[in-house]
């Protein structure tokens, strides 16, 4: 199955990855090849098969509602690209 | 000393013939001197290592030493290490110093082991040749004499090359589709990928959460057992970690193999495998027969779909797992973003390498509106079929054996232009991750002077049996002791 | 043309757990920015979620309270989108298999009717952080926003109703009822000014009687009942104008500005994100067994409907009073404390709905922030009932209690000299004296035949009497004595 340039551009926006025209051409080929590989799936008969999300048939454990964390803002913000007054800074958010 | 195993080094330290500080210094010196040839380390932590060695010597003096106290090793650079740069092979995390430890890291600290540094890897563990690392390709210590640089396999290529080159006796690694076993095979070392959920994933940077599993690499099965003794266990911080008793994996290494039922999946012995490779694998199986095992052919009819299912599921999970690398809280942020969108799209375009971006885009596409059922849901159904194949096989046999990779180490650059050809490297390993089973790769011979790996696959939580089978094989063969020239 | 209004609600309810839904960070409100955001909340590489048991307990309690099926197996999914206040780049939420299935809530309307609003489902999810738009600048002078992730990971249940409401009044009545349920359950503090409950309103119009639903819009993030009512009125009017001009409604998400009574489009359906939901591989299916449900059931407190019935039965309140006093758990508790001390339930109800509520509203305080206790108001009720103070005097006592001048009712009455004179002999003497000074009025009264007019004329004597008694004469006794002295 092939993937169109428009699809690639759309997906790149969803994934927030900037791609230029040249990259789109390369991706058209590479992603097309990968999707061809993946298309083998369509041959499998999976009519009555339950999808499998996890290797083990286990169920979720729940955690007691107790505070276990302390303030480590200084350590975390020491590795942040931009902070001020304890806030992470990003280019203006417009709703 | 550099040729000694973890078990041997542990005994040397115990006997007092050498201190951990001396041993660590020897390894560090060798590492700094030799690694220029392989590029198997991204970060060498000399100061911390010597401090840990000193602490280990004190612990030993106080009579509190364990098997690992003072023994040098390395971490794949995917495990977060408090205060030590953790890059995951990516520009995105080039300067990322986590203020926390992965659970696996913490366990080795508690065991008193001495971490020499962080090993190179394919970026975000995506690759089978270690060529996608932002910190440069890793060179396989094998085949260098021919004048050609070969890949060590991937993604744990740094760990495999470092162990093969005797830079460290053991290293941690991770395996999402073959990333422990394939490099172990290509570098002639022994690697173990445990059952999904056996080793905590907390602090192990995620590629594909339902497939990723931390494991070990060393030259011997016994050392892998020592590694797993430290790594395995329930972790309340990982919801997918299994609360199940951890045996002493060294305790059963010497069990006789008489009566062991071995299955050979016929789908793994096809024309994708060169006759020379096949011969080595069949010879290894014959050794097992000599040890008293019986062999029969089994079938995994859906195994041929494993690559296709994997290249939907793994990229889909990765596409979400890697969304957190957005330039807001840590890691790379592009220069002078003109607005929020520009910050996101340039940060991620510049911070991620080509293979990572390809997989994010494939995963995004597979999950996007209109394709979810055809790709993601379908792949999950096929995943179930693959798991059932293994379940059926394990009704008949105790372990499965196959080649680990379709070919020995290839020359650098040979497959970088064609992602799909590269993906086929994992054709014999990927199904095991989809099912979540444990498996090992054990050195089992050579083709054209390059190592060949035998893959041994077990049922869920059968790590002890795999290690036992590998150890017994290593008592009657010396492939794992061969040293690259 | 006549239109039917069709309204459905989505309500985000912040759960009053101690910690976040997937980490052990505190959820306490008002901390310094990012001091309650740990490695998991910040989506540091390699970190993993572990769900909070109480989040599930509270969700199940909610499910039981709204007569819903409990999801025996619920599954978390990832909803993928990029936003700076969403650290992982996806929200962990539930979609196909939520914790609470279909249920319903019965809502009493002002006209005395009861409206049943069906719950489609309720699911558990994590809240996002906050973007603060106060101005920061980078070194090039570009405007920057600040991100506080303390709220990121706070557990929410999102309650989704069927489109069963047909007016702003019904929607608000339902919203208030839901508020009353979650606060009674103690699973949410109900503080809407802090965002503890946030409403999204889906509105469409259809020609009266038609069974074909019109195109709907969604107005997001309304955080008060008043804004909700205004936003619905505004949107109904906007849609009606468009439809009556022959236009088409565009399916879109809108933002309402309550201060300006304006709304604007946020995004249309075409621009809607492709959220790429898929089951979260870091989390396993949550299985709720009978024991868990039974345990949650044991924890259910009295719910508003049951409380209302009890208030009518136990205190003899009428339907209206019982409804008002039982809706808010804290107000109901205040009422019961007042009655416990004050005995007279009707009088207590009147004071709570009158003076007390008026004062709370005037000072924008919640019941919990009230400076006076139910016990104090109860003590005052006792003194009103036994005629120790007049209602005018009682207001002065209330004022003194409220301002904290003194915290003892009797001490205030003494200190301010508010005790009524109820000594009949003394009162009779005062009446005699006053009547003696008003012979014309006495004659006029006695000549009047109409009992209604006579009754009214009695008031003319009360002023001078109160003056003569310096405001301390018991008006009720004065009245009785007057009637007697004037000959009926």
UniProtKB/TrEMBL annotation, chain A:
GO BP annotations listed: glutaminyl-tRNAGln biosynthesis via transamidation; regulation of translational fidelity; translation
Catalysed reaction equations from the record: L-aspartyl-tRNA(Asn) + L-glutamine + ATP + H2O = L-asparaginyl-tRNA(Asn) + L-glutamate + ADP + phosphate + 2 H(+); L-glutamyl-tRNA(Gln) + L-glutamine + ATP + H2O = L-glutaminyl-tRNA(Gln) + L-glutamate + ADP + phosphate + H(+)
Keyword NAD listed: no
Keywords attached to this entry: ATP-binding, Ligase, Nucleotide-binding, Protein biosynthesis, Transferase
EC number(s) per entry: 6.3.5.-
Transmembrane helix is among the record's keywords: no
An MF annotation (GO) of this entry: transferase activity
Top EC category: ligase
Family: Belongs to the GatC family.
Subunit structure: Heterotrimer of A, B and C subunits.
Protein's job: Allows the formation of correctly charged Asn-tRNA(Asn) or Gln-tRNA(Gln) through the transamidation of misacylated Asp-tRNA(Asn) or Glu-tRNA(Gln) in organisms which lack either or both of asparaginyl-tRNA or glutaminyl-tRNA synthetases. The reaction takes place in the presence of glutamine and ATP through an activated phospho-Asp-tRNA(Asn) or phospho-Glu-tRNA(Gln).
Protein name: Aspartyl/glutamyl-tRNA(Asn/Gln) amidotransferase subunit C
Organism expressing this protein natively: Marinobacter pelagius
TrEMBL record, chain B:
Reaction catalysis annotation: L-glutamyl-tRNA(Gln) + L-glutamine + ATP + H2O = L-glutaminyl-tRNA(Gln) + L-glutamate + ADP + phosphate + H(+)
EC category name: ligase
Gene Ontology process terms (BP): translation
EC number of this enzyme: 6.3.5.7
Keywords in alphabetical order: ATP-binding, Ligase, Nucleotide-binding, Protein biosynthesis, Transferase
One GO cellular component term noted in the UniProt record for this chain: glutamyl-tRNA(Gln) amidotransferase complex
Ligase is among the record's keywords: yes
PROSITE patterns named among the record's database cross-references: AMIDASES
Residues annotated as domain Amidase: 22-467
GO molecular function, one term: glutaminyl-tRNA synthase (glutamine-hydrolyzing) activity
Active site: residue positions: 76 (charge relay system), 155 (charge relay system), 179 (acyl-ester intermediate)
Function: Allows the formation of correctly charged Gln-tRNA(Gln) through the transamidation of misacylated Glu-tRNA(Gln) in organisms which lack glutaminyl-tRNA synthetase. The reaction takes place in the presence of glutamine and ATP through an activated gamma-phospho-Glu-tRNA(Gln).
Family: Belongs to the amidase family. GatA subfamily.
PANTHER family assigned: GLUTAMYL-TRNA(GLN) AMIDOTRANSFERASE SUBUNIT A, TRANSAMIDASE
Assembly notes: Heterotrimer of A, B and C subunits.
The protein, known as: Glutamyl-tRNA(Gln) amidotransferase subunit A
UniProt source species: Marinobacter pelagius
Automatic annotation (TrEMBL), chain C:
InterPro entries assigned to the protein according to its UniProt record, in alphabetical order: Asn/Gln-tRNA_amidoTrfase_suB/E, Asn/Gln-tRNA_Trfase_suB/E_cat, Asn/Gln_amidotransferase, Asn/Gln_tRNA_amidoTrase-B-like, GatB, GatB_C_1, GatB_Yqey_C_2, Gln-tRNA_amidoTrfase_suB_CS
Reaction equation(s) it catalyzes: L-aspartyl-tRNA(Asn) + L-glutamine + ATP + H2O = L-asparaginyl-tRNA(Asn) + L-glutamate + ADP + phosphate + 2 H(+); L-glutamyl-tRNA(Gln) + L-glutamine + ATP + H2O = L-glutaminyl-tRNA(Gln) + L-glutamate + ADP + phosphate + H(+)
Ranges where the Asn/Gln amidotransferase domain occurs: 333-486
The EC number(s) this enzyme carries: 6.3.5.-
Organism annotation: Marinobacter pelagius
One GO MF term attached to the UniProt entry: glutaminyl-tRNA synthase (glutamine-hydrolyzing) activity
Any one of the GO BP annotations: translation
Quaternary structure, from the entry: Heterotrimer of A, B and C subunits.
Protein name, as recorded: Aspartyl/glutamyl-tRNA(Asn/Gln) amidotransferase subunit B
Primary role: Allows the formation of correctly charged Asn-tRNA(Asn) or Gln-tRNA(Gln) through the transamidation of misacylated Asp-tRNA(Asn) or Glu-tRNA(Gln) in organisms which lack either or both of asparaginyl-tRNA or glutaminyl-tRNA synthetases. The reaction takes place in the presence of glutamine and ATP through an activated phospho-Asp-tRNA(Asn) or phospho-Glu-tRNA(Gln).
Keywords attached to this entry: ATP-binding, Ligase, Nucleotide-binding, Protein biosynthesis, Transferase
Pfam families: GatB_N, GatB_Yqey
Domain of life: Bacteria
SUPFAM superfamilies assigned to the protein according to its UniProt record, in alphabetical order: GatB/YqeY motif (SSF89095), Glutamine synthetase/guanido kinase (SSF55931)
């Amino acid at each position: 199955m092939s993937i169109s340039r428009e699809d690639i551009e759309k997906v790149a926006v969803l994934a927030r990855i900037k791609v230029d025209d040249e990259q789109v051409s390369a991706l058209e080929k590479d992603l097309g090849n990968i999707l061809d590989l993946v298309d083998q799936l369509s041959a499998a008969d999976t009519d009555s098969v339950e999808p499998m999300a996890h290797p083990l048939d286990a169920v979720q454990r729940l955690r007691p509602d107790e505070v276990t964390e302390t303030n480590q803002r200084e350590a975390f913000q020491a590795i942040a690209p931009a902070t001020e007054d304890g806030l992470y800074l990003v280019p203006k958010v417009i709703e | 000393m550099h040729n000694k195993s973890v078990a041997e080094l542990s005994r040397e330290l115990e006997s007092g013939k050498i201190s951990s500080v001396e041993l660590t210094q020897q390894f560090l010196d060798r590492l700094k001197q030799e690694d220029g040839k392989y590029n198997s380390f991204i970060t060498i932590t000399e100061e911390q290592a010597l401090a840990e060695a000193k602490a280990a010597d004190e612990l030993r003096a106080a009579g509190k030493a364990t098997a690992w106290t003072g023994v040098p090793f390395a971490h794949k650079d995917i495990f977060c290490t408090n205060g030590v740069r953790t890059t995951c092979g990516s520009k995105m995390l080039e300067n990322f110093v986590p203020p926390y430890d992965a659970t696996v890291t913490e366990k080795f600290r508690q065991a008193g082991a001495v971490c020499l540094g962080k090993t190179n890897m394919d970026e975000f563990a995506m690759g089978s040749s270690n060529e996608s690392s932002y910190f440069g390709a890793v060179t396989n210590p094998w085949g260098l004499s021919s004048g050609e640089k070969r890949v060590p396999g991937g993604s744990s290529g740094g760990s495999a090359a470092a162990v093969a080159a005797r830079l460290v006796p053991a290293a941690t690694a991770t395996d999402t589709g073959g990333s422990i076993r394939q490099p172990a095979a290509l570098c002639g070392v022994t690697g173990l990928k445990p059952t999904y959920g056996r080793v905590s994933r907390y602090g192990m940077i995620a590629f594909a959460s339902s497939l990723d599993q931390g494991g070990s690499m060393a030259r011997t099965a016994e050392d892998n057992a020592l590694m797993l003794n430290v790594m395995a266990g329930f972790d309340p911080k990982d919801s997918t970690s299994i609360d199940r008793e951890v045996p002493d994996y060294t305790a059963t290494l010497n069990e006789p193999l008489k009566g062991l039922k071995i299955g050979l999946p016929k789908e793994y012995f096809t024309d994708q495998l060169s006759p020379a490779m096949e011969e080595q694998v069949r010879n290894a199986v014959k050794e097992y027969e000599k040890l008293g095992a019986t062999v029969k052919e089994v079938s995994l009819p859906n195994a041929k779909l494993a690559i296709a299912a994997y290249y939907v599921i793994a990229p889909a999970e990765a596409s979400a797992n890697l969304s957190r690398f957005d330039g807001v809280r840590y890691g790379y942020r592009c220069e002078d973003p003109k607005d929020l969108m520009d910050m996101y799209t340039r940060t991620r375009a510049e911070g991620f390498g080509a293979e990572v971006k390809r997989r994010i885009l494939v995963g995004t596409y597979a999950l996007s509106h209109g394709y979810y059922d055809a790709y993601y849901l379908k792949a999950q159904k096929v995943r179930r079929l693959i798991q059932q194949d293994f379940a059926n096989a394990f009704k008949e046999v105790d372990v499965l054996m196959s080649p680990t990779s379709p070919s020995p180490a290839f020359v650098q650059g040979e497959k970088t232009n064609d992602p799909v050809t590269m993906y086929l490297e994992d054709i014999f390993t990927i199904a095991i991750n989809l099912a979540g089973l444990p498996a090992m790769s054990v050195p089992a011979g050579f083709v054209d002077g390059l190592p060949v790996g035998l893959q041994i696959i077990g049922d869920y939580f059968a790590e002890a049996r795999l290690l036992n089978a590998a150890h017994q094989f290593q008592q009657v063969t010396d492939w794992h002791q061969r040293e690259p020239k | 043309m006549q239109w039917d209004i069709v309204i459905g609600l989505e309500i985000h309810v912040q759960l009053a757990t101690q910690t976040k839904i997937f980490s052990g960070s505190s959820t306490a409100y008002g901390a310094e920015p990012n001091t309650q955001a740990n490695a998991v909340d910040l989506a540091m590489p390699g970190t993993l979620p572990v769900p909070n048991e109480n989040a599930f307990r509270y969700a199940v309690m909610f499910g039981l309270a709204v007569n819903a099926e409990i999801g025996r197996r619920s599954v978390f999914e990832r909803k993928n989108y990029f936003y700076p206040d969403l650290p992982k780049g996806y929200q962990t939420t539930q979609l196909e298999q939520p914790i609470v299935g279909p249920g319903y809530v019965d809502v009493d309307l002002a006209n005395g009717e009861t409206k049943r609003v069906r719950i489609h489902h309720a699911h558990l999810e994590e809240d996002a952080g906050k973007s603060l738009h106060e101005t920061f600048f980078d070194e090039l002078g570009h405007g920057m926003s600040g991100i506080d992730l303390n709220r990121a990971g706070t557990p929410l249940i999102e309650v989704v109703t069927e489109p069963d409401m047909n007016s702003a009044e019904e929607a608000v009545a339902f919203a208030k009822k839901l508020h009353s349920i979650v606060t009674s359950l103690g699973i949410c503090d109900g503080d809407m000014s802090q965002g503890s409950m946030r409403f999204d309103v889906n509105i469409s119009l259809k020609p009266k009687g038609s069974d074909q639903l019109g195109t709907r819009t969604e107005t997001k993030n309304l955080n008060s009942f008043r804004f909700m009512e205004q936003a619905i009125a505004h949107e109904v009017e906007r849609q009606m104008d468009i439809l009556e001009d022959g236009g088409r409604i565009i399916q879109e998400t809108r933002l309402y500005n309550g201060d300006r009574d304006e709304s604007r489009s946020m995004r249309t359906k075409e621009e809607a994100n492709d959220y790429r939901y898929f089951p979260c591989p870091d989390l396993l299916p949550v299985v709720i067994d009978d024991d868990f449900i039974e345990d949650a059931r044991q924890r259910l407190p009295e719910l508003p409907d049951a409380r209302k019935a009890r208030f009518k039965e136990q205190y003899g309140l009428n339907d209206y009073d019982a409804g008002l006093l039982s809706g808010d758990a804290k107000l109901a508790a205040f009422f019961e404390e007042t009655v416990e001390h004050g005995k007279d339930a009707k009088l207590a109800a009147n004071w709570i709905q009158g003076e007390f509520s008026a004062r709370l509203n005037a000072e924008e305080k919640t019941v919990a922030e009230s400076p006076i206790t139910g016990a104090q108001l109860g003590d005052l009720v006792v003194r009103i009932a036994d005629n120790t103070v007049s209602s005018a005097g009682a207001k002065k006592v209330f004022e003194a209690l409220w301002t904290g001048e003194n915290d003892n009712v009797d001490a205030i009455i003494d200190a301010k000299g508010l005790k009524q004179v109820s000594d009949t002999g003394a009162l009779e003497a005062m009446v005699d004296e006053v009547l003696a000074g008003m012979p014309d009025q006495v004659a006029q009264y006695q000549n009047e035949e109409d009992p209604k007019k006579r009754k009214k004329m009695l008031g003319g004597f009360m002023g001078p009497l109160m003056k003569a008694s310096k405001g301390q004469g018991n008006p009720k006794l004065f009245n009785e004595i007057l009637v007697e002295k004037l000959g009926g």
